[in-house]
Amino acid sequence: MKNILIIGIDALSGEILSKALGEYDDFFQVLIAENDEKALEICSSIRPDLVIVDLSQPDKNILELLHHIKKSFPELPGIAITSAGNPMSGLKIEYPGITEYLNKPVDTKLLIDTVMKILEINRTGQIQDISLPSFLQMVEMEAKTCYLRVRQNRMVGYLYFQKGELIAARTGIRKNEEAAYEIIGWENANIEIFTSEQDQKKKIDSPLMNILIETLKRKDEKTSQKIKGQKTEKGKPELRLTKSSSPILHFGLEMGIRLHVKPENLAVTSKSTFIGMKPEEYLIIATPQSFDKFLEKPALEKQIIVKYLCNGIIFAFKSKILQSLPAPFDLLFLQYPQQVEQRYIRSLKRIKCFIPAKATCNDEETIGSILDINIRGCGCLLQALDAYDPLTWKIDEH
């Protein structure tokens, strides 16, 4: 996420700019400095990506502050707000970081377009190398308000999210839940994300997890029926390879698995999520929240250690950050690991499975799936309740 610092602006104008920019809080956050001390305090703790300064009233202190900020962040771009008719030509020499000039009263649409252009943010983006179910869970986790256009060959579908909740869906012939089942079931679909600028009424009541599980059940049933219907001339079923509906496993890494990421020379460990990969080239993970300062370091210093647990095995490998991608989601691209270490924590291996299940806690019921199992126990993924006592959980049926 980009950081925009606004300085030298009056309270009313600051409120107008903050409200206009706040509609795009998926892309950046706005920081308003009421005075020079506050601006320096913000710059000491957060690296700004853009500065917006009000130069409609000449102020020597503002120019000194700009020079100080420019000294700390030489590549920092700036937008100046000026009075109509004031050419401000001298300021281009005094503060070369200012590349755009907007007159008062500020046209907020022009301001947004200018900010997007400088920060190289596209309000739409194509998502690649990530499965649609994994991407939808990431939208839910990030509480995004947006809509997705999903394409498979000539078919097109739309999924609408409000603060991370799937509220509507449509294809050419289906709407809402039935449309969602169809869209999520598409293989190798192209995903485009758009910021939502219109109100969409809530037409889907089922949680996203329920819809994902139901979609998977329908795909498995459809595949099973197709295999049963494939008969040879002698009446025996024709055996064909079918694509598995389970995530592809690469040295224990699965879409959505939780990661523990630590800079190699620091003691602090941060949590992340595995998003996807291009085998033999790179991995994609969600950017840990505490990595802002670490990402400012030179490339040679961005060595990290990644650890995670899968099927009773602790995996660990060393890597380095190749690139950070702040929009439309904060993502890190990591070097593909050359070596992965493993340590077993169970004496008896669990078998991977996908069994729909229901569970109860204090007379409350939830649904989920059994993901792995052996004769001693199993691993379950359950839809969370508001409050529960973990000791009272039990599986009712599957």
Protein described:
This protein is an alpha+beta fold. It has helices at 11-22, 36-45, 60-72, 89-94, 108-118, 132-141, 176-184, 208-229, 292-295, and strands spanning 2-7, 28-33, 50-54, 78-82, 98-103, 124-127, 146-152, 155-162, 165-170, 190-195, 258-263, 270-278, 282-286, 303-310, 313-325, 331-335, 341-344, 351-361, 364-374, 377-382, 394-397. A six-stranded antiparallel barrel has the order 11-12-13-16-15-14. Strands 2-1-3-4-5 form a five-stranded parallel beta sheet. Strands 6-10-7-8-9 form a five-stranded antiparallel beta sheet, covered by helices on one side. Helix 2 packs parallel to helix 3 (60-72) and helix 7 (176-184) crosses helix 8 (208-229). Residues 88-93, 238-249 and 388-392 have low confidence and may be disordered.
Number of DSSP-assigned strands:
21
Distance between the termini: 42 Å
Beta-strand content: 35-45%
What integer value in Å does the Rg equal? 26 Å
Largest sheet: 6 strands, antiparallel, barrel
Shape descriptor reads globular
The name of the CATH topology of the largest domain is: Rossmann fold
Structural class: alpha+beta
Unreliable stretches covering 5 or more consecutive residues = 88-93, 238-249, 388-392
Tally of contiguous helical segments: 9
Q: Supply the CATH superfamily name of the largest domain.
A: Response regulator
Tell me the series of helices and strands, N- to C-terminal: EHEHEHEHEHEHEEEHEHEEEHEEEEEEEE
Helix share of residues? 10-25%
